[in-house]
Specification:
The chain is globular and about 60 Å long. The protein starts with a helix and ends in a 5-residue tail after the last helix. The protein is about 70% helix and about 0% strand. The chain has 17 helices and two strands. The chain has one domain. With about 400 residues, it is mostly helical.
Length: about 400
Protein backbone atom coordinates (compact mmCIF):
# COMPACT_ATOMS: atom_id res chain seq x y z
CA UNK A 1 0.00 0.00 0.00
CA UNK A 2 1.48 3.41 -0.98
CA UNK A 3 2.62 5.54 1.93
CA UNK A 4 0.15 8.34 1.09
CA UNK A 5 -2.78 5.92 0.99
CA UNK A 6 -1.68 4.34 4.26
CA UNK A 7 -1.42 7.75 5.91
CA UNK A 8 -4.92 8.66 4.72
CA UNK A 9 -6.25 5.36 6.02
CA UNK A 10 -4.75 5.96 9.47
CA UNK A 11 -6.06 9.52 9.47
CA UNK A 12 -9.54 8.31 8.58
CA UNK A 13 -9.48 5.75 11.41
CA UNK A 14 -8.39 8.37 13.93
CA UNK A 15 -11.00 10.87 12.76
CA UNK A 16 -13.77 8.27 12.89
CA UNK A 17 -12.67 7.16 16.36
CA UNK A 18 -12.61 10.78 17.54
CA UNK A 19 -16.21 11.21 16.37
CA UNK A 20 -17.28 8.09 18.24
CA UNK A 21 -15.57 9.32 21.42
CA UNK A 22 -17.15 12.77 21.09
CA UNK A 23 -20.64 11.33 20.58
CA UNK A 24 -20.39 8.94 23.55
CA UNK A 25 -22.27 10.17 26.65
CA UNK A 26 -19.90 11.24 29.39
CA UNK A 27 -21.60 9.01 31.98
CA UNK A 28 -21.32 5.81 29.93
CA UNK A 29 -19.36 3.12 31.76
CA UNK A 30 -16.94 2.09 29.04
CA UNK A 31 -15.34 -0.55 31.24
CA UNK A 32 -18.61 -2.52 31.20
CA UNK A 33 -18.57 -2.59 27.40
CA UNK A 34 -14.92 -3.62 27.44
CA UNK A 35 -15.57 -6.51 29.83
CA UNK A 36 -18.42 -7.73 27.62
CA UNK A 37 -16.24 -7.53 24.51
CA UNK A 38 -13.34 -9.37 26.18
CA UNK A 39 -15.70 -12.09 27.41
CA UNK A 40 -17.11 -12.71 23.94
CA UNK A 41 -13.70 -12.67 22.25
CA UNK A 42 -12.32 -14.96 24.96
CA UNK A 43 -14.97 -17.58 24.21
CA UNK A 44 -14.35 -17.30 20.47
CA UNK A 45 -10.58 -17.68 20.74
CA UNK A 46 -10.95 -20.45 23.28
CA UNK A 47 -13.17 -22.49 20.97
CA UNK A 48 -10.84 -21.95 18.03
CA UNK A 49 -7.86 -23.13 20.08
CA UNK A 50 -9.32 -26.25 21.71
CA UNK A 51 -11.81 -27.49 19.08
CA UNK A 52 -10.54 -29.74 16.33
CA UNK A 53 -12.44 -31.51 13.54
CA UNK A 54 -10.34 -34.55 12.70
CA UNK A 55 -10.69 -36.13 9.27
CA UNK A 56 -10.89 -39.90 9.73
CA UNK A 57 -11.59 -41.62 6.44
CA UNK A 58 -14.87 -40.23 5.17
CA UNK A 59 -15.98 -38.73 8.47
CA UNK A 60 -15.20 -35.75 10.66
CA UNK A 61 -15.27 -36.02 14.43
CA UNK A 62 -14.52 -33.54 17.20
CA UNK A 63 -11.36 -33.74 19.28
CA UNK A 64 -9.47 -31.52 21.70
CA UNK A 65 -5.78 -30.94 22.34
CA UNK A 66 -6.67 -30.85 26.04
CA UNK A 67 -7.36 -34.58 25.96
CA UNK A 68 -4.02 -35.48 24.40
CA UNK A 69 -2.04 -32.76 26.18
CA UNK A 70 -3.76 -32.14 29.53
CA UNK A 71 -0.88 -29.90 30.62
CA UNK A 72 -2.38 -27.28 28.28
CA UNK A 73 -5.33 -26.87 30.68
CA UNK A 74 -4.20 -23.31 31.64
CA UNK A 75 -5.36 -22.23 28.17
CA UNK A 76 -8.91 -22.84 29.35
CA UNK A 77 -8.29 -20.65 32.39
CA UNK A 78 -7.59 -17.69 30.11
CA UNK A 79 -10.32 -18.14 27.51
CA UNK A 80 -13.27 -19.59 29.46
CA UNK A 81 -14.78 -16.19 30.21
CA UNK A 82 -18.51 -16.91 30.46
CA UNK A 83 -18.68 -15.90 34.13
CA UNK A 84 -17.59 -12.37 33.20
CA UNK A 85 -20.30 -12.23 30.55
CA UNK A 86 -22.96 -13.24 33.09
CA UNK A 87 -21.54 -10.73 35.60
CA UNK A 88 -21.89 -7.91 33.08
CA UNK A 89 -25.26 -9.23 31.94
CA UNK A 90 -26.64 -9.21 35.48
CA UNK A 91 -25.27 -5.73 36.08
CA UNK A 92 -26.68 -4.25 32.86
CA UNK A 93 -30.06 -6.01 33.14
CA UNK A 94 -30.58 -4.95 36.76
CA UNK A 95 -29.60 -1.38 35.99
CA UNK A 96 -31.78 -1.32 32.88
CA UNK A 97 -34.82 -2.79 34.62
CA UNK A 98 -34.53 -0.36 37.52
CA UNK A 99 -34.28 2.54 35.07
CA UNK A 100 -37.23 1.22 33.04
CA UNK A 101 -39.41 1.00 36.13
CA UNK A 102 -38.50 4.58 37.05
CA UNK A 103 -39.65 5.69 33.58
CA UNK A 104 -42.90 3.77 33.89
CA UNK A 105 -41.98 1.16 31.27
CA UNK A 106 -43.79 -2.13 31.73
CA UNK A 107 -41.95 -5.40 32.32
CA UNK A 108 -43.20 -6.82 29.02
CA UNK A 109 -41.92 -3.90 26.97
CA UNK A 110 -38.55 -3.97 28.74
CA UNK A 111 -38.12 -7.73 28.32
CA UNK A 112 -39.15 -7.70 24.65
CA UNK A 113 -36.62 -4.98 23.91
CA UNK A 114 -33.80 -6.95 25.57
CA UNK A 115 -34.60 -10.36 24.15
CA UNK A 116 -35.31 -9.19 20.61
CA UNK A 117 -31.69 -8.22 20.02
CA UNK A 118 -30.53 -11.37 21.73
CA UNK A 119 -32.52 -13.69 19.46
CA UNK A 120 -32.75 -11.81 16.16
CA UNK A 121 -29.47 -13.31 14.85
CA UNK A 122 -30.51 -16.85 15.89
CA UNK A 123 -33.02 -17.27 13.04
CA UNK A 124 -30.31 -16.87 10.40
CA UNK A 125 -28.07 -19.49 12.05
CA UNK A 126 -30.90 -22.00 12.41
CA UNK A 127 -32.06 -21.48 8.83
CA UNK A 128 -28.60 -21.84 7.29
CA UNK A 129 -27.70 -24.96 9.26
CA UNK A 130 -31.07 -26.62 8.67
CA UNK A 131 -30.57 -26.20 4.94
CA UNK A 132 -26.90 -27.20 5.15
CA UNK A 133 -27.60 -30.34 7.19
CA UNK A 134 -30.32 -31.51 4.81
CA UNK A 135 -28.10 -30.81 1.79
CA UNK A 136 -25.20 -32.75 3.30
CA UNK A 137 -27.39 -35.75 4.12
CA UNK A 138 -28.93 -35.77 0.64
CA UNK A 139 -25.43 -35.57 -0.82
CA UNK A 140 -24.49 -38.75 1.01
CA UNK A 141 -22.35 -37.31 3.81
CA UNK A 142 -22.27 -39.68 6.79
CA UNK A 143 -24.73 -38.93 9.55
CA UNK A 144 -22.03 -38.80 12.23
CA UNK A 145 -20.20 -36.06 10.32
CA UNK A 146 -23.38 -34.01 9.91
CA UNK A 147 -24.23 -34.54 13.57
CA UNK A 148 -20.78 -33.33 14.68
CA UNK A 149 -21.02 -30.22 12.51
CA UNK A 150 -24.54 -29.28 13.57
CA UNK A 151 -23.72 -29.87 17.24
CA UNK A 152 -20.76 -27.50 17.02
CA UNK A 153 -22.67 -24.88 15.07
CA UNK A 154 -25.63 -24.81 17.45
CA UNK A 155 -23.69 -25.29 20.70
CA UNK A 156 -23.76 -21.52 21.46
CA UNK A 157 -27.56 -21.66 21.71
CA UNK A 158 -27.56 -23.33 25.14
CA UNK A 159 -25.82 -20.26 26.49
CA UNK A 160 -28.40 -17.92 24.97
CA UNK A 161 -31.30 -19.91 26.43
CA UNK A 162 -29.82 -19.78 29.93
CA UNK A 163 -29.00 -16.09 29.58
CA UNK A 164 -32.53 -15.34 28.31
CA UNK A 165 -34.10 -17.22 31.23
CA UNK A 166 -32.02 -15.27 33.76
CA UNK A 167 -32.85 -12.01 31.98
CA UNK A 168 -36.56 -12.80 32.17
CA UNK A 169 -36.19 -13.50 35.90
CA UNK A 170 -34.28 -10.27 36.58
CA UNK A 171 -37.09 -8.65 38.63
CA UNK A 172 -36.89 -11.63 41.02
CA UNK A 173 -33.10 -11.61 41.13
CA UNK A 174 -32.28 -7.96 41.73
CA UNK A 175 -31.91 -8.51 45.49
CA UNK A 176 -30.94 -12.19 45.57
CA UNK A 177 -27.75 -12.84 47.51
CA UNK A 178 -25.24 -14.80 45.33
CA UNK A 179 -24.57 -17.11 48.29
CA UNK A 180 -27.97 -18.81 47.78
CA UNK A 181 -27.30 -20.18 44.27
CA UNK A 182 -23.72 -20.95 45.36
CA UNK A 183 -25.14 -23.07 48.18
CA UNK A 184 -27.28 -24.96 45.65
CA UNK A 185 -24.20 -25.75 43.56
CA UNK A 186 -22.32 -26.97 46.64
CA UNK A 187 -25.14 -29.34 47.63
CA UNK A 188 -25.65 -30.63 44.10
CA UNK A 189 -21.97 -31.50 43.74
CA UNK A 190 -21.92 -33.04 47.22
CA UNK A 191 -24.81 -35.31 46.25
CA UNK A 192 -23.32 -36.17 42.84
CA UNK A 193 -19.68 -36.71 43.66
CA UNK A 194 -19.64 -37.25 47.42
CA UNK A 195 -22.73 -39.39 47.98
CA UNK A 196 -23.03 -41.12 44.60
CA UNK A 197 -26.23 -39.37 43.56
CA UNK A 198 -27.64 -39.55 40.01
CA UNK A 199 -25.70 -37.67 37.34
CA UNK A 200 -28.82 -35.84 36.13
CA UNK A 201 -28.74 -33.77 39.33
CA UNK A 202 -25.84 -31.87 37.78
CA UNK A 203 -28.20 -30.13 35.39
CA UNK A 204 -29.65 -28.18 38.31
CA UNK A 205 -26.34 -26.31 38.20
CA UNK A 206 -27.04 -25.13 34.66
CA UNK A 207 -29.26 -22.49 36.25
CA UNK A 208 -27.75 -22.25 39.72
CA UNK A 209 -24.14 -22.11 38.48
CA UNK A 210 -24.69 -19.15 36.17
CA UNK A 211 -26.98 -17.49 38.69
CA UNK A 212 -23.92 -16.88 40.86
CA UNK A 213 -22.12 -14.39 38.52
CA UNK A 214 -25.47 -13.00 37.30
CA UNK A 215 -26.55 -12.11 40.84
CA UNK A 216 -23.05 -10.78 41.50
CA UNK A 217 -23.79 -8.37 38.66
CA UNK A 218 -26.98 -7.32 40.46
CA UNK A 219 -24.95 -6.80 43.65
CA UNK A 220 -22.54 -4.67 41.60
CA UNK A 221 -25.48 -2.50 40.50
CA UNK A 222 -26.57 -2.12 44.13
CA UNK A 223 -23.10 -0.79 44.97
CA UNK A 224 -22.15 -3.76 47.12
CA UNK A 225 -19.00 -4.51 45.11
CA UNK A 226 -17.66 -0.96 44.78
CA UNK A 227 -14.92 -1.46 47.35
CA UNK A 228 -11.77 -3.09 46.05
CA UNK A 229 -11.76 -5.31 49.12
CA UNK A 230 -14.82 -7.14 47.74
CA UNK A 231 -13.08 -7.73 44.41
CA UNK A 232 -9.92 -8.97 46.11
CA UNK A 233 -12.00 -11.33 48.26
CA UNK A 234 -13.66 -12.78 45.15
CA UNK A 235 -10.34 -13.19 43.37
CA UNK A 236 -8.43 -14.70 46.29
CA UNK A 237 -11.29 -16.80 47.61
CA UNK A 238 -12.27 -18.10 44.18
CA UNK A 239 -8.68 -18.97 43.33
CA UNK A 240 -8.11 -20.77 46.64
CA UNK A 241 -11.35 -22.77 46.39
CA UNK A 242 -10.73 -23.75 42.77
CA UNK A 243 -7.20 -24.87 43.57
CA UNK A 244 -8.46 -26.97 46.49
CA UNK A 245 -11.17 -28.58 44.35
CA UNK A 246 -8.79 -29.46 41.51
CA UNK A 247 -5.83 -30.58 43.62
CA UNK A 248 -7.63 -32.07 46.60
CA UNK A 249 -11.06 -33.14 45.35
CA UNK A 250 -10.21 -34.48 41.91
CA UNK A 251 -12.11 -31.96 39.77
CA UNK A 252 -10.78 -31.61 36.19
CA UNK A 253 -8.15 -28.92 35.71
CA UNK A 254 -9.68 -27.86 32.40
CA UNK A 255 -12.47 -25.31 32.70
CA UNK A 256 -14.00 -26.37 29.38
CA UNK A 257 -15.42 -29.69 28.24
CA UNK A 258 -12.97 -32.25 26.88
CA UNK A 259 -14.37 -34.91 24.48
CA UNK A 260 -14.04 -38.35 26.02
CA UNK A 261 -13.39 -37.11 29.55
CA UNK A 262 -15.40 -38.67 32.36
CA UNK A 263 -16.31 -35.35 34.01
CA UNK A 264 -16.73 -31.90 32.53
CA UNK A 265 -16.51 -28.69 34.54
CA UNK A 266 -18.80 -26.92 32.11
CA UNK A 267 -21.42 -29.37 30.87
CA UNK A 268 -23.09 -29.04 33.33
CA UNK A 269 -21.24 -26.48 35.49
CA UNK A 270 -19.51 -27.88 38.56
CA UNK A 271 -18.54 -26.17 41.77
CA UNK A 272 -15.00 -25.77 40.40
CA UNK A 273 -16.32 -23.86 37.37
CA UNK A 274 -18.37 -21.61 39.65
CA UNK A 275 -15.51 -20.84 42.04
CA UNK A 276 -13.26 -20.22 39.06
CA UNK A 277 -15.90 -17.79 37.82
CA UNK A 278 -15.83 -16.01 41.17
CA UNK A 279 -12.10 -15.44 40.73
CA UNK A 280 -12.67 -14.14 37.20
CA UNK A 281 -15.38 -11.76 38.40
CA UNK A 282 -13.07 -10.45 41.11
CA UNK A 283 -10.31 -9.83 38.58
CA UNK A 284 -12.76 -8.10 36.22
CA UNK A 285 -13.89 -5.75 38.98
CA UNK A 286 -10.28 -4.98 39.92
CA UNK A 287 -9.47 -4.09 36.30
CA UNK A 288 -12.53 -1.90 35.83
CA UNK A 289 -10.89 1.43 36.63
CA UNK A 290 -7.81 0.61 34.58
CA UNK A 291 -9.99 -0.34 31.61
CA UNK A 292 -11.95 2.87 31.96
CA UNK A 293 -8.76 4.90 31.72
CA UNK A 294 -7.47 2.91 28.74
CA UNK A 295 -10.74 3.43 26.86
CA UNK A 296 -10.36 7.20 26.98
CA UNK A 297 -8.27 6.62 23.88
CA UNK A 298 -10.67 7.08 20.95
CA UNK A 299 -9.35 4.21 18.81
CA UNK A 300 -9.55 1.70 21.67
CA UNK A 301 -13.10 2.79 22.51
CA UNK A 302 -14.22 2.63 18.89
CA UNK A 303 -12.96 -0.96 18.65
CA UNK A 304 -14.86 -1.95 21.81
CA UNK A 305 -18.03 -0.24 20.53
CA UNK A 306 -17.78 -2.17 17.27
CA UNK A 307 -17.45 -5.54 19.04
CA UNK A 308 -20.39 -4.78 21.33
CA UNK A 309 -22.59 -3.76 18.44
CA UNK A 310 -22.14 -7.21 16.82
CA UNK A 311 -21.48 -9.33 19.90
CA UNK A 312 -24.19 -11.92 19.19
CA UNK A 313 -23.30 -12.17 15.52
CA UNK A 314 -19.67 -12.87 16.39
CA UNK A 315 -20.67 -15.36 19.07
CA UNK A 316 -23.19 -17.27 16.95
CA UNK A 317 -21.09 -17.54 13.79
CA UNK A 318 -17.58 -18.20 15.10
CA UNK A 319 -18.01 -21.98 15.07
CA UNK A 320 -19.40 -21.81 11.54
CA UNK A 321 -16.28 -19.89 10.50
CA UNK A 322 -14.10 -22.68 11.92
CA UNK A 323 -16.11 -25.39 10.17
CA UNK A 324 -16.25 -23.56 6.85
CA UNK A 325 -12.47 -23.25 6.90
CA UNK A 326 -12.10 -26.92 7.81
CA UNK A 327 -14.46 -28.11 5.07
CA UNK A 328 -12.83 -25.93 2.41
CA UNK A 329 -9.38 -27.05 3.49
CA UNK A 330 -10.32 -30.70 2.86
CA UNK A 331 -10.13 -29.93 -0.86
CA UNK A 332 -6.35 -29.71 -0.39
CA UNK A 333 -6.12 -32.87 1.74
CA UNK A 334 -5.55 -33.36 5.46
CA UNK A 335 -3.92 -30.14 6.63
CA UNK A 336 -1.94 -29.88 9.90
CA UNK A 337 -3.71 -27.95 12.63
CA UNK A 338 -6.99 -28.29 10.79
CA UNK A 339 -7.78 -31.97 10.10
CA UNK A 340 -5.08 -33.81 12.01
CA UNK A 341 -5.24 -35.29 15.52
CA UNK A 342 -4.35 -32.57 18.10
CA UNK A 343 -1.80 -34.63 19.98
CA UNK A 344 1.45 -32.65 19.82
CA UNK A 345 2.90 -29.15 19.89
CA UNK A 346 3.24 -29.11 16.11
CA UNK A 347 -0.57 -29.15 15.95
CA UNK A 348 -0.73 -26.21 18.39
CA UNK A 349 1.63 -24.08 16.30
CA UNK A 350 -0.25 -25.00 13.14
CA UNK A 351 -3.57 -24.09 14.76
CA UNK A 352 -2.20 -20.69 15.80
CA UNK A 353 -1.34 -20.08 12.16
CA UNK A 354 -4.96 -20.83 11.19
CA UNK A 355 -6.43 -18.25 13.58
CA UNK A 356 -6.16 -15.32 11.12
CA UNK A 357 -7.98 -17.44 8.52
CA UNK A 358 -10.78 -18.19 10.98
CA UNK A 359 -11.00 -14.48 11.75
CA UNK A 360 -11.22 -13.60 8.06
CA UNK A 361 -14.02 -16.10 7.47
CA UNK A 362 -15.82 -14.81 10.57
CA UNK A 363 -15.52 -11.29 9.15
CA UNK A 364 -17.30 -12.52 6.00
CA UNK A 365 -20.05 -14.05 8.15
CA UNK A 366 -20.27 -10.80 10.10
CA UNK A 367 -20.66 -8.75 6.93
CA UNK A 368 -23.37 -11.11 5.64
CA UNK A 369 -25.44 -11.49 8.80
CA UNK A 370 -24.81 -8.50 11.08
CA UNK A 371 -27.96 -6.74 9.89
CA UNK A 372 -30.03 -9.42 11.67
CA UNK A 373 -28.62 -8.21 14.99
CA UNK A 374 -28.80 -4.53 14.08
CA UNK A 375 -32.31 -4.74 12.65
CA UNK A 376 -31.19 -3.67 9.17
CA UNK A 377 -30.61 -0.10 10.29
CA UNK A 378 -27.13 0.06 8.85
CA UNK A 379 -28.51 -0.24 5.30
CA UNK A 380 -30.49 2.97 5.61
CA UNK A 381 -27.51 5.14 6.46
CA UNK A 382 -26.03 7.50 3.90
CA UNK A 383 -23.01 5.91 2.18
CA UNK A 384 -20.74 8.92 2.78
CA UNK A 385 -20.85 8.56 6.54
CA UNK A 386 -17.89 7.06 8.31
CA UNK A 387 -18.43 3.37 8.99
CA UNK A 388 -17.21 3.82 12.55
CA UNK A 389 -19.73 6.63 13.08
CA UNK A 390 -22.51 4.37 11.74
CA UNK A 391 -21.50 1.68 14.18
CA UNK A 392 -21.52 4.07 17.09
CA UNK A 393 -24.84 5.72 16.25
CA UNK A 394 -26.53 2.38 15.83
CA UNK A 395 -25.02 1.31 19.13
CA UNK A 396 -26.28 4.42 20.85
CA UNK A 397 -29.80 3.77 19.56
CA UNK A 398 -29.55 0.31 21.05
CA UNK A 399 -28.65 2.02 24.35
CA UNK A 400 -29.26 -0.09 27.39
CA UNK A 401 -30.36 -3.00 25.19
CA UNK A 402 -26.76 -4.15 24.87
CA UNK A 403 -26.79 -7.82 25.82
Amino acid sequence: MPETTLRRFHTGIRQGADRVATATPADRDRAVDALRAFAILGVVLGHWLVTALVADGGTLHTASPLRHMPWLAPISWVFQTLAVFFLVGGHVATKGYTSARARGTTYGVWLTARLSRLFRPVAAVLTLWTVAALALLVDGVEFETVRALVKLALSPLWFLLVFAALTAATPLLTKLNPLWPLAVVVHVDLLRFGLGGPSWLGWVNLAAGWLVPYTLGAAWTRGELDRRRAAWLLLAGGTAMTTALVVGAGYPASMVGVPGAGTSNLNPPTLAAVTFGLAQCGLALLLRDRLGRALRRPVAWAAVALVNLSAMTVFLWHQTALMATTATGLLAGRLPGLHTVPDNLAWVWARLAWLPVFALVLAVCWAAFRHHEQGGRGRTERPRRSRVVRVHRTSERAGARHV
